[in-house]
């Protein structure tokens, strides 16, 4: 394998996966320590948010603060007039603090964000113009968060149809590094005791199957089996997921770069 520090251009793909996506921040921390930097970032759902902060030049500490301080379930954000329990548009001002210019062109790295068009069943890829609306849409997990209107169409979580957006950067870089936090491992029988657990497992299997070929297309793929024990919306798992991402990436890079 080529030395990551010497490749002419590096593309970083960040999957969706809720709070487990804090492992992406750990990946970025480890890459920084090895002097490895991505030229292009492509992300879905929480991967889009982490990717935007990375492309924006925010530090790892600032990235973690963003997720710790952003109120996921603020009571005055609840809505009865939109499809979804929480009005996603209410987060615009929260995001504006981190992205005051609200456009892709102001970022330090090229960024691609994917969201699902709920009306026509297509994928929307965003890489120019308004930034915050696509970010909100990409992370708007139904039915918790309401869809976001962009160009007169309703968009929601990118992970619904594309949880690992390889497409925007394929063929544009010399090396593709993927970070996948939507892990699938063996489950014991007692982990499937009710309909919610069963639905979550089936959804996870479907997402993994849809994206398997793209995962295998990466020059280096990072996956984190220890994330299975962290709930997708479990805010208490932020630091743990971050540590898992950091420690595993350090271990892999130690092996890869010593060869």
Automatic annotation (TrEMBL):
InterPro entries assigned: Acyl_Trfase/lysoPLipase, NTE, PNPLA_dom
Name of the protein: Phospholipase
Gene Ontology molecular-function annotations: hydrolase activity
Keyword Nucleotide-binding: no
Positions occupied by motif GXGXXG: 16-21
Biological processes annotated in GO: lipid catabolic process
Active-site residues, as the UniProt record annotates them: 45, 157
Residue span(s) of domain PNPLA: 12-170
Keyword Cytoplasm: no
Placement of sequence motif DGA/G: 157-159
Keywords: Hydrolase, Lipid degradation, Lipid metabolism
Motif residue range(s): GXSXG: 43-47
Matches recorded under PANTHER family: NEUROPATHY TARGET ESTERASE/SWISS CHEESE D.MELANOGASTER, SLR0060 PROTEIN
Superkingdom of origin: Bacteria
Organism: Euzebyella marina
């Amino acid at each position: 394998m080529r030395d990551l520090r010497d490749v002419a251009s590096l593309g970083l793909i960040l999957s969706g996966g809720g709070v487990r996506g804090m492992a992406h921040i750990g990946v970025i921390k480890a890459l920084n320590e090895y002097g490895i930097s991505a030229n292009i970032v492509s992300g879905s759902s929480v991967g889009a948010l982490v990717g935007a902060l990375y492309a924006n030049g925010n530090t790892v500490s600032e990235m973690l603060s963003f997720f710790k301080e952003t109120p996921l379930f603020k009571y005055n954000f609840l809505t009865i007039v939109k499809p979804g329990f929480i009005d996603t548009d209410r987060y615009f001002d929260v995001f504006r603090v981190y992205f005051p210019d609200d456009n892709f062109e102001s970022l330090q790295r090229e960024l691609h964000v994917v969201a699902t068009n709920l009306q026509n069943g297509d994928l929307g890829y965003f890489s120019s113009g308004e930034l915050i609306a696509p970010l909100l849409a990409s992370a708007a997990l139904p039915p918790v968060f309401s869809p976001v209107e962009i160009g007169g169409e309703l968009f929601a979580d990118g992970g619904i149809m594309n949880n690992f957006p390889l497409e925007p950067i394929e063929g544009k870089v010399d090396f593709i590094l993927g970070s996948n936090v939507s892990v699938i491992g063996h489950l014991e029988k007692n982990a499937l005791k009710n309909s919610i657990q069963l639905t979550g497992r089936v959804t996870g299997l479907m997402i993994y199957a849809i994206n398997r070929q793209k995962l295998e297309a990466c020059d280096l793929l990072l996956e984190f089996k220890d994330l299975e024990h962290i709930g997708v919306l479990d805010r208490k798992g932020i630091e743990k997921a971050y540590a898992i991402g950091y420690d595993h990436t350090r271990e892999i890079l130690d092996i890869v770069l010593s060869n």
